[in-house]
Amino acid sequence: MVVRKSQQELIDAINELVKEDALLTPNSYNTQQAYQSYERIGYEGMRWSVEKRIAEYGLERLYAKAKQVLDIGSNFGFFTVESALRSGLAHGIEPNPFLIEIGIKTADHLGVSEQAEFFNCTFEQFINITQYDLVLSLAAFHTGDGRERSNADDYFSKVNHLLNDEGRLFFESCSYVKDAALAQNDSAIQNQYAKERAKEAIGRQLVLEEEWETVSGSPGYFRFFAIARKRQD
Fold it and tell me: What are 166-182's pLDDT values in tens digits?
């Protein structure tokens, strides 16, 4: 019989993995504070919780039609696990064994280990085993740690290939600045150009349905969002 960990045991296990990641992973997001948050398990990190982001992004409407979800750059795996709870099957891609283990432990704790599967690889390396109703690319294109530097057309062409006929992409850019004088680091400037490349490639490789921009954290910082459907031609 499998005995699931208590919530506190899960949090303790996650924190140990976060420490290992911060120590052993170059350019880890977790050196100052755990990056991800998930209210369902009582875990607090730097970013808004999965639940708040789903509400803020209006993702409920996309989950309502999604039975199979792909989460590119799944990080702690919290979005992948929540997607499994809301759909039926969810796959997370993350080239980091410490973060993959966090996702596995969280899925087991919430009873969706059979619906949530994680792949320790980059998106370029990923070979799909199914087609998806919803692909999430949440701050996963041109990442701040420098590990994702795909050509934009290659990236979004692959997304289009992975979608079912009525499938949707939900895209969130990394945080960027428009005024270089407000940038806290060079990546915030580069992310502005990456956002433009992503927006243009989404329009070429998929059918762009919606786009919007919001403020993000520090003054002068923004994030870009887009929803696109599969291109059939």
Answer: 999 999 999 999 887 77
204-207 CB contacts, 8 Å cutoff, 24+ apart: 204/153, 204/156, 205/153, 205/156, 205/157, 205/159, 205/160, 205/231, 206/156, 206/159, 206/160, 206/163, 206/169, 206/230, 206/231, 207/231
Q: Show the tokens assigned to 192.
A: 């502005």
- The three-state secondary structure class of 86 is helix
- Please check whether residue 167 is in contact with residue 229, taking contact to mean a CB–CB distance below 8 angstroms: yes
Helix (H) or strand (E) holding 52: helix 50-57
Beta bridge partners of 153: none
- Domains delineated in the chain: 50-229 (3.40.50.150)
d(CA 118, CA 94): 7
Q: Is the pTM of this model over 0.70?
A: yes
d(CA 2, CA 6): 13
Q: What is the pLDDT of residue 1?
A: 42
- Long-range contacts at 107-111 (CB < 8 A, ≥ 24 apart): 107/77, 107/80, 107/81, 108/2, 108/4, 108/5, 109/4, 109/5, 109/7, 109/10, 109/41, 110/40, 110/41, 110/81, 110/85, 111/4
Burial class (CB in 10 A: 0-12, 13-18, 19+), 127: exposed
Enter the DSSP assignment of 129.
Answer: S
Q: Hey, is 148 helix, strand or coil?
A: coil
Instruction: Please say whether the beta carbons of 35 and 29 come within 8 A.
Output: yes
3-class DSSP assignment, residue 230: coil
